[in-house]
Specification:
With about 190 residues, this protein is an all-alpha fold. The protein has eight helices and no strands. Helix 1 runs antiparallel to helix 2, helix 1 crosses helix 4 and helix 4 packs antiparallel against helix 5. The longest helix is centred in the middle third of the chain and has 27 residues. The chain is elongated and about 55 Å long.
């Protein structure tokens, strides 16, 4: 077999872009071939099990990015406010200031839900729980922290949909700014 034309991470980055733009079901092998510049057979070199294999790789990569950009800052040194500011910066980066679609939404519809539904569920639970445990560290009881974290995740994900529907990315940006005040009501929300 000839050597691959592109490093796998570059191919995966292009596949992620296509999935985020078209969704799982709307992303065809033809679109992926065009986006990567590879013939369909070469895509199978990188992902032998085809599109489901690509979907698993995309989910894993996006999960790793969320962990690094959004959750890791909550465990780093600094004040609560500094950690929240770094988390918010990570959210803005991951979602391209609100222009990128919800990473997990693309795997919660149609065929993708059948293939990846449980993995998406686990990732959502992990995101909610990580935020909740961060809130608990400030002395808030677990039940309250879980509710706040659930509302926080809903705020972020819902604002992405609203920003796309209104064609106004500032909707997402304002939601991210409001997130610390939702998790910790004693933190004033910027007007």
């Amino acid at each position: 077999m000839p050597a691959p034309l592109l490093p796998r991470d570059q191919v995966l980055a292009k596949i992620i872009e296509e999935f985020r733009h078209w969704g799982y079901d709307g992303t065809t092998l033809s679109r992926l071939s065009q986006a990567t510049g590879l013939v369909k057979a070469s895509l199978y070199h990188y992902f032998p099990k085809g599109k489901p294999d690509m979907g698993r790789a995309v989910l894993r990569a996006l999960g790793d990015q969320i962990a690094t950009l959004v959750l890791q800052p909550l465990a780093e040194e600094g004040s609560r406010e500094e950690k929240l500011a770094r988390m918010n910066a990570g959210l803005l980066e991951f979602y391209a200031e609100g222009s990128a679609s919800c990473a997990l939404e693309i795997f919660s519809l149609g065929t993708a839900k059948e293939l990846f539904g449980e993995e998406v569920r686990q990732k959502m639970i992990g995101l909610r729980d990580a935020l909740a445990f961060f809130v608990v560290e400030s002395g808030v009881d677990l039940a309250t922290a879980l509710k706040r974290a659930e509302y926080g995740v809903s705020l972020v994900q819902g604002s992405l949909i609203m920003a796309r529907g209104l064609d106004d990315h500032r909707v997402f940006q304002r939601a991210v700014e409001a997130l610390p005040g939702l998790l910790f009501p004693e933190i004033p929300v910027a007007p």
